[in-house]
Amino acid sequence: MPELYEPRLPLFTLTEAHQLLDALQHTDTQDHDCGAQARHFATELAARAPSRDP
Fold first, then answer.
1. 49 and 17 in contact (C-beta within 8 Å)?
2. How far apart are the first and last CA of the chain?
3. Please, what is the average pLDDT of the chain?
4. What angle (nearest 5°) sits at the alpha carbon of residue 33, between those of residues 40 and 25?
5. Three-class HEC string of the chain
6. Which is more confidently placed, 50 or 9?
7. CA 27 to each of CA 21, 37, 38: distance values in angstroms, whole numbers, following the listed order
8. Angle at alpha carbon of residue 20, lines to 50 and 41, rounded to 5°
9. 15-36 per-position pLDDT tens digit
């Protein structure tokens, strides 16, 4: 994890976007209130981030 004082990029890197997508997809399978919100954002992110496959 980067240090808190390091500058951040304004956008996620492709690797970060895919890691976040993985986390959201895992969260959307959980049976709690955040599941629907995680599904929504996972769908949005998947539609906007390029595929992992070259």
1. yes
2. 27
3. 82
4. 45
5. CCCCCCCCCCCCCHHHHHHHHHHHHHHCCCCCCHHHHHHHHHHHHHHHCCCCCC
6. 50
7. 10, 9, 6
8. 80
9. 999 999 998 888 877 767 788 8
Q: Is the pTM of this model over 0.85?
A: no
- How big is the CA angle at 24 (ends 4 and 39), to the nearest 5 degrees? 140
Identify whether the C-beta of residue 28 lies closer than 8 Å to the C-beta of residue 42.
yes
d(CA 3, CA 17): 19
C-alpha span between 26 and 20 (Å, rounded): 10
